[in-house]
Amino acid sequence: MPSEPITYLAGRVCVLAGDLTEQAVDAIVNAANSSLLGGGGVDGAIHRHGGPAILQACRNLRTSLWPNGLPAGQAVITTGGDLPARYVIHTVGPIYGRHGGHEAELLADCYRNALALAAGHGLRRLAIPAIATGIYGYPADEAARIVSLTLCETLPKHPEIEEIRLVFFSDEQRDIFLAHQCFAGNCR
Ligand code: APR
């Protein structure tokens, strides 16, 4: 399959394999957990590469806006610290099978709220990993359908957002997304 990014939605969405922490965009989106205090996966990579300023900003959010933690589907924004990206938007994906059948809606909320937050901060270029498809166990094929349909619905509401990179950690994960996305209206 392709080594070049594949684009959808008039070129505003591009799909590629790579490392999210290396993306030189206005904001990358973190697949965080409710504590906002770091973890494994892409969360761990972001804190490792981004440095302590990100964790400190997350701690401040915990003591101010979200004392009980960030609920699944919600999103917050912090500095990007030492990352090439200026900001990190942290969102909490649903743990597959643990939200009473509302997982699809919560996953869609992650993307809706991340885009709304980016637009609210005047950000134009974002990079987003495959939220919830790692440790949180969301099946990648189901997620591809939800993510593509959500972006089809949401991106037109935010004309100021110029570019969304969907960044997959391997060619295989990218190819699963490409095989199951619904950007072209190709899903029933
Ligand atoms: N760049 C891009 N994608 C990455 C990277 C990276 N550097 N590292 C991991 N990924 C991919 C994984 O392969 C997976 O497809 O990100 C996707 C999301 O996986 P996780 O990081 O495990 O996130 P998630 O499934 O949402 O689980 C969240 O894991 O990392 C912890 O603290 C986090 O507890 C939270 C949970």
Secondary structure: elements and pairs:
Layout (H helix, E strand, L loop, with lengths): L5 E3 L4 E5 L9 E6 L8 H10 L1 H12 L11 E5 L7 E6 L10 H18 L4 E4 L11 H15 L8 E6 L2 H10 L8
Parallel strand pairs: 2-7, 3-5, 3-6, 6-7
Antiparallel strand pairs: 1-2, 4-5
Helix pairs in contact: 3-4, 4-5
The site of adenosine-5-diphosphoribose (APR) has 25 residues, from strand 3 and helix 1.
Description:
This protein has 188 residues and is α/β, with parallel strands linked by helices. The protein has one domain: Leucine Aminopeptidase, subunit E, domain 1 (3-Layer(aba) Sandwich), CATH 3.40.220. It has five helices and seven strands. The protein has helices at 41-50, 52-63, 103-120, 140-154, 171-180; strands spanning 6-8, 13-17, 27-32, 75-79, 87-92, 125-128, 163-168. Helix 3 (103-120) packs across helix 4 (140-154).
Structural class: alpha/beta
CATH topology: Leucine Aminopeptidase, subunit E, domain 1
Which sequence of strands runs across the widest sheet?
1-2-7-6-3-5-4
Corresponding CATH architecture: 3-Layer(aba) Sandwich
Element pattern in H and E? EEEHHEEHEHEH
CATH superfamily (homologous) name: Leucine Aminopeptidase, subunit E, domain 1
Q: What is the mean pLDDT? A: 97
Total helices: the number is 5
User: Into how many domains do the coordinates divide?
Assistant: 1
Distance between the termini: 25 Å
- C-alpha-based Rg, rounded: 15 Å
Portion in helices: 25-40%
The CATH class turns out to be: Alpha Beta
Strand content: 15-25%
Ligands in the model, by name, code or SMILES, are: adenosine-5-diphosphoribose
